[in-house]
Amino acid sequence: GIITINDLVEQLVGELDDVEDADEPVQEIERTDSGTWNIRGEASLEDVADALGAALPTEEYETFGGFVFGSLGTIPDDGSQLELDACGLHIKVLEIRDHRMERAAVCLLAPPEEGTPEE
Question: What are phi and psi of 65, to 5 degrees?
Fold first, then answer.
């Protein structure tokens, strides 16, 4: 067989993610039902705000993962799974790897009813 530079480098540093090897592009924002989305941490916060129709602090954060960690006020340990409510969204973080949020399940919170006192 033929040995490529890529094969040699992978022997030295480990498996490389090849863009060409990907069967299909990974969707950063995927709607799973009428009120739930799976969102990757690297998704642009502006794209997330547009897709969900939510008012998010796009001036403060570039990515959805940055927004989630900013809302938490900390970077959780790898493997952590947690939930939080922020900016009208219920966010369930499903995967944290290498101190980065990989993916989360997101639902829109119901707006408070008229006449109901807010907490």
Answer: -60, -40
d(CA 77, CA 114): 39
Report the range of poorest mean pLDDT among 17-31, 35-49, 69-83: 17-31
At residue 34, the pLDDT reads 84
Q: How far apart are CA 36 and CA 44, in angstroms?
A: 18
pTM equals 0.72
- Nearest CA to 100 among 71, 66, 57, 62? 66
Using DSSP, state whether 50 is helix, strand or coil.
Answer: helix
Q: What is the pLDDT of residues 41-77, one digit of tens each?
A: 999 999 999 999 999 999 999 999 999 999 999 888 8
Q: CB of 54 within 8 A of CB of 87?
A: yes
Neighbours of 20 (CB within 10 A): 4
Rounded Cα distance between 34 and 20, Å, is: 33
Residue 36: is it exposed, middle or buried by C-beta count within 10 angstroms (0-12/13-18/19+)? middle
